[in-house]
Amino acid sequence: MQAQEQCYRLGFSVRAACVQVHPASRALLTNPKQGKLKMLSRIDQATPSERQFFYEKIGGANVTPLWEVLHGIITAQPNTPCVPHLWKWQQLWPWLLEAGNLITAQEAERRVLVLENPGLRGRTRITHSLYAGLQLIMPGEIAPMHRHSQSALRFILQGQGAYTAVNGEKVTMNVGDFVITPSWTFHDHGNPSSEPMVWLDGLDLPIVEVLDAQFMEKGTSQSQQTTQGANTNLARFGNTMKPVEYKPSSNTSPLFWYPYERTREALETLRVHDELHACWGHKLQYTNPVTGSWAIPTMGTFMQLLPAGFLGASYRSTDSTIYTVVEGQGRCLIADQILEFGPKDVFVCPSWMPYRLEADSDTVMFSYSDRPVQQALDLWREAME
Q1: Terminus of the chain with fewer CB atoms < 10 Å: N or C?
Q2: How far apart (Å, rounded) are the C-alpha atoms in residues 46 and 367?
Q3: Which pLDDT score, from 0 to 100, does residue 57 have?
Q4: Burial (0-12, 13-18, 19+ Cβ within 10 Å), 236
Q5: Which residues of 138-173 are buried (b: 16+ CB within 10 A; e: fewer)?
Q6: Repeat among the record's keywords (predicted)?
Q7: How many CB atoms lie within 10 A of CB 288?
């Protein structure tokens, strides 16, 4: 009875705390001073089999000992299973065309070849936090309207004349253009041109998935009625100004089309007037023109110019970064690998792995990463060596 009374004073039930505990633990409850000595002595004598028996017992109640996994989950440095990898356009382009003969854009809904990191096969992602894929729209096709929680970016790799429509606004896309599909906005794609169109899709799909915040809704028709074109959107937000009455309803940029010709011109101006950065040459960040912050709240997007002969210094950061090449040739030296890249190739540099960039000719590259999320959580780090 004395042991039972001690259990009640400590807030335990007799069945849970007194009947099923080790004698040394029971002694700690009934006589704390003497029990503490017995408990310490008992710990010194505990055998591996006794510990395993304990782990299995508490495991039945969905409880596990932290000390068995602590050093694997809190590490001295990032310990990602992601590995560096290069996807060559010359290999992917025939496969995209073959996919175009196997399934229509309407049946597939989105005819995309997913670029899976070799260290994350079967998980539909290029890094732990981001998705990448190459989408093909053949002449005359429409990828039907839908919307989803995930934010998406489109970076155009091949062809011209296809369009994307976002919330009633339509933009015709060309190589090098960066296009945003904000979270939970209806969008569809079409190709009225005479040539296949391919772009790189980047989504924050794994981030939304880990937060269990994913929703998706199909449209009531294949395509939406559009009342405004990209020139209207560009006039409103693409000239360092905004309509006086505009009030943002989202953290995503209201400017959803960033034409390549403007970005390329800006990079050339930097080449003339700015010093070359030792690690990344001349590099620009796409921004929300209203707030000055990231264009997409979950994905940082960039464009950079590496002049011919550029030999970059070593760089690393905690945001795994996906690159695709618009112009030029060069290489990325990372983890004892040499990734030789050319136009339309895609490669990934995982978190905290030092890498260097080199350019044989003037090279322009687009990239994206989860840097906005890491910075918002005070997690992001970089190092230049």
Answers
A1: N
A2: 54
A3: 96
A4: middle
A5: beebbbbbebbbbbbbbbbbbbeebbbbbeebbbeb
A6: no
A7: 20
Q: Residue 134 to residues 52, 110, 198, 287, 360: CA-CA distances in angstroms?
A: 48, 10, 7, 24, 26
Strands, E, within 247-345: which ranges? 257-258, 282-285, 300-306, 315-317, 321-327, 330-334, 337-341
DSSP state of 309: T
Backbone phi, psi, residue 282, to 5°: -105, 120
Fold (topology level) of 85-384: Jelly Rolls (2.60.120)
Give residue-wise pLDDT tens across range 176-198.
999 999 999 999 999 999 999 99
Sign, Cα dihedral of 131, 136, 137, 142:
negative
Mapping DSSP to helix (H, G, I), strand (E, B) and coil, where does residue 108 land? helix
215 Cβ neighbours under 8 A, 6+ residues apart:
148, 149, 184
Local structure of 305: helix, strand or coil: strand
Enumerate residues 6+ apart whose C-beta is below 8 A from 20: none
What angle, rounded to 10 degrees, do the helices at 2-10 and 23-30 form?
Answer: 80
State the Cα–Cα distance between residues 349 and 321, nearest whole angstrom: 5
The one-letter code for the residue type at 48 is P
* DSSP H helical ranges for the chain: 2-10, 23-30, 32-45, 48-59, 70-73, 89-102, 105-108, 205-210, 230-237, 260-273, 371-376
Q: Minimal CA–CA distance to 366: which of 285, 252, 245?
A: 285
Question: How far is Cα 340 from Cα 334, in angstroms, rounded to an integer?
Answer: 11
Alpha-carbon dihedral angle through residues 200, 206, 212, 218, given to the nearest 10 degrees: 20
Of 345, 300, 337, 340, nearest to 320 (Cα)? 300
Q: What is the pLDDT of residue 9?
A: 43
Ranges in the chain, pLDDT < 50 = 1-19
Q: Which long-range contacts (CB under 8 A, 24 or more apart) does 382-385 make?
A: 382/315, 382/316, 382/317, 382/318, 383/315, 383/316, 383/317, 383/354, 384/278, 384/279, 384/313, 384/314, 384/315, 385/313, 385/314, 385/315, 385/316, 385/354
List the chain domain ranges: 2-73, 85-384
